[in-house]
Write a structure and sequence with these properties.
The complex is a heterodimer.
Chain A lengths: L3 E6 L2 E3 L21 E3 L1 H15 L7 E10 L3 H11 L3 E6 L8 H15 L3 E5 L10 H9 L3 E10 L4 E8 L2 E8 L2 E5 L11 H7 L3 E5 L12 E7 L9 E2 L2 H10 L4
Parallel strand pairs in A: 1-4, 1-6, 4-5, 5-11, 6-10, 7-10
Antiparallel strand pairs in A: 2-3, 7-8, 8-9
Helix pairs in contact in A: 2-5, 3-4
Chain B lengths: L1 H11 L2 H17 L3 E4 L2 E2 L2 E2 L5 H9 L3 E7 L3 H8 L6 E6 L8 H15 L3 E5 L2 H13 L5 E4 L1 E4 L2 E6 L4 E7 L4 E5 L16 E3 L9 E8 L12 E5 L6 H15 L2 E4 L1 H5 L20 E5 L5 H4 L7 E6 L6 H4 L2 E4 L2 H14 L1
Parallel strand pairs in B: 1-4, 1-6, 4-5, 5-12, 6-11, 7-11, 14-15, 14-16, 16-17, 17-18
Antiparallel strand pairs in B: 2-3, 8-9, 9-10
Classes of the chains: A alpha/beta, B alpha/beta.
Chain lengths: ~260, ~350
């Protein structure tokens, strides 16, 4: 069994509890002064990587856990969080504030990074909660021609580099097996991420964080999709309350729902 | 009209003229829009919901071809062939594609997309579509557009972002546009009387580097959550799995509804994960959505706020769900829901 060299891509997004507001120019959502944090699915990826090491899940052991983020200067904060959770080091590819990379570009960037870091396992979130695209992991696996297992709720390691993954699918679960190297994306049921403790946050400040640019990887921020506009969804108006069950049934009949 | 003529011609056995027509349409296709709609099959049966891809394809204009692969796809292909508006169904008969493993299914699609010279590739935003299509897009060097809810023209698409709290309109500059579509926004095409020709596609024969081991599907006689016309959904307020089953299942049966759940209910083990409605679960848009003991968090609303009528039963009069519910009842669900169930049954 090969020792694992895990790459964990993480993304800085608007905190999941914040209700996003579309900006006046209708070009995107307001991000200035809004609380940001690590994409919740990426939290699960970091946690899983650290658990694989701590619980000695992989027969070959874990040689390296490298957190990776492409984002504005502040993305370093979430890389520090990942390191405080147990990642060994971080790589930050700096993108100008306000710029976004499309999943295809991120996948190309990750491919180069995987080759550079000699990673043999990439664990990504199944989607980022801002763009909701759910593409990067699968695109990366396609570009690398590696096997993939998406929406993982359980990851098990066996002999001969075998990895067995239980995936959430429509209507239930499905189990697939593949050999390293591979790409896995996380679903919410995989684990419960830990909170970084203060001593670990302090320690994380001393861990190595490499700063890079897209140009270092021979890439540019090429956009295939032009955002024409971003609008508020149509607002639903609450129809008010009824007194009792009969009122409820009456109203539903009136609305043609019963 | 063109394909009807062609069918008549080939029936008459006028091979020469038939071929000329085919060539003419092939020529025009190389410049013009044409769509490959990826259909899903399970155990040789067509997944009806996957016909949403056909609906979306027809909306684009231009010819639409359906695609199916697996060991015994003839039955599924014949079902799909009944759908009006599809020019042909392309099948690849090979057991290697039965489970839709992305490692060999993606290259298979890429081969067939290149051979057919398609400008648009569409699949449902289902577990299958979500797993395979981005891989296809990457192999085609195309930036996929996920979970499309509206098609404005051949290059302009609308999709929700931020859990449906914003709606983005994007224009694609890619030569081949790869889309996954939201099923509730494009009702599945209904098989009718058409008899679309079925042709064999190319078998890319690339090796699957992953292996399907097993599956465990939640069995239920109730309607399927994603396509049901009525959904009753329970949340944290149900307090336990026993109470969830005791309160929600009779209500679902009285209404003939599918059962859904909030993430809180799933996380607490009251309901199976496959029943989760929301940003990270299923997106539904039934005629009636009844939320029981659900507060109405952003991530839950993302999965149900396009329902026609929303009803809510909650003991907290300030629960956010009441802001969007067409009809709300403040009260203890353990009293109100059994009463409601009885009254629906007796009416």
């Amino acid at each position: 069994m090969s020792a694992l060299r895990i790459l964990v891509p993480v993304k800085r997004v608007i905190d999941y509890a914040v209700k996003p507001r579309v900006n006046k120019a209708q070009t995107g959502v307001e991000t200035a002064g809004v609380k940001h944090s690590m994409n919740p699915f990426d939290d699960l990826s970091v946690e899983e990587s650290v658990r694989i090491r701590e619980k000695k899940h992989a027969p070959g052991g874990v040689e390296d856990i490298c957190a990776f983020s492409a984002g504005p200067p502040k993305a370093q904060e979430i890389l520090r969080t990942a390191m405080a959770m147990g990642a060994d080091r971080g790589i930050h590819v700096e993108i100008k504030e306000g710029e976004e990379l499309e999943p295809l570009t991120v996948a190309k960037l990750l491919k180069k990074s995987v080759e550079e870091q000699k990673s043999n396992l990439v664990i990504l979130g199944k989607q980022s909660i801002d763009d909701d695209a759910g593409q990067t992991g699968q695109m990366l696996a396609g570009l690398l021609n590696w096997p993939q297992a998406t929406q993982a709720s359980k990851i098990e390691f066996g002999p001969d580099d075998a990895v067995t993954v239980t995936k959430e699918i429509d209507g239930g679960v499905e189990t697939v097996r593949a050999k390293l190297p591979m790409v896995i994306t996380t679903d919410l049921r995989l684990n419960t991420p830990r909170y970084a403790t203060l001593p670990n946050i302090m320690k994380a400040k001393k861990k190595k964080l490499d700063k890079k640019t897209l140009e270092d990887y021979g890439l540019t921020n090429e956009k295939r999709l032009k955002v024409l506009k971003v609008t508020e969804p149509p607002q639903r108006q609450g129809g008010g309350k009824v007194e009792d069950v009969d009122g409820l049934i009456g109203k539903l009949k009136e609305l043609g729902a019963l | 009209m063109l394909f009807l003529t062609r069918q008549l011609l080939s029936k008459r056995g006028d091979a020469v003229f038939g071929r000329a027509l085919r060539q003419a349409s092939k020529y025009s296709r190389s410049n013009a829009l044409s769509t490959l709609a990826i259909l899903e099959q399970r155990d040789g049966q067509l997944v009806q919901g996957s016909l949403s891809a056909v609906t979306a394809g027809i909306k684009l204009g231009g010819p639409v071809h359906g695609f199916l692969a697996g060991s015994s796809v003839s039955t599924a292909a014949e079902q799909a062939a009944k759908v009006n508006g599809v020019e042909k169904i392309i099948t690849v008969e090979n057991g290697a594609y039965d489970k839709g493993l992305p490692e060999n299914y993606a290259p298979l699609l890429v081969e067939n997309i290149k051979k057919g010279g398609y400008t648009h590739v569409i699949a449902g935003h289902t577990a299958f579509g979500k797993s395979v299509l981005p891989r296809v897009a990457a192999l085609l060097d195309s930036q996929q557009i996920s979970d499309v809810t509206a098609i404005e023209d051949e290059k302009t698409f609308v999709r929700p972002i931020y859990a449906g709290n914003a709606i983005a309109t994007v224009e694609s500059t890619d030569a081949i546009k790869v889309l996954t579509i939201r099923g509730t926004a494009f009702p599945a095409a209904i098989p009718e009387q058409a008899s679309t020709p079925i042709e064999s596609g190319v078998d890319a024969k690339s090796e699957a580097t992953s292996e399907w081991v097993s599956e465990d599907l939640a069995k239920s006689d109730r309607p399927d959550l994603s396509t049901a016309s009525k959904v009753v959904s329970g949340g944290r307020g149900l307090k336990s799995k026993e109470e969830f089953d005791k309160v929600m299942l009779p209500l679902a049966d009285a209404l003939g509804a599918a059962v859904g759940a909030s993430r809180a209910a799933v996380d607490s083990g009251y309901a199976d994960n496959s029943l989760q409605v929301g940003q990270t679960g299923k997106v539904v848009a039934p005629q009636l959505y009844m939320a029981v003991g659900i507060s109405g968090a952003i991530q839950h609303l993302a999965g149900m706020k396009d329902s026609k009528v929303i009803a809510a039963i909650n003991k907290d009069p300030d629960a956010p769900i009441f802001q969007i519910a067409d009809v709300g009842l403040v009260g203890d669900l353990f009293e109100k829901v059994p009463e409601l169930t009885e009254k629906i049954k007796s009416s």
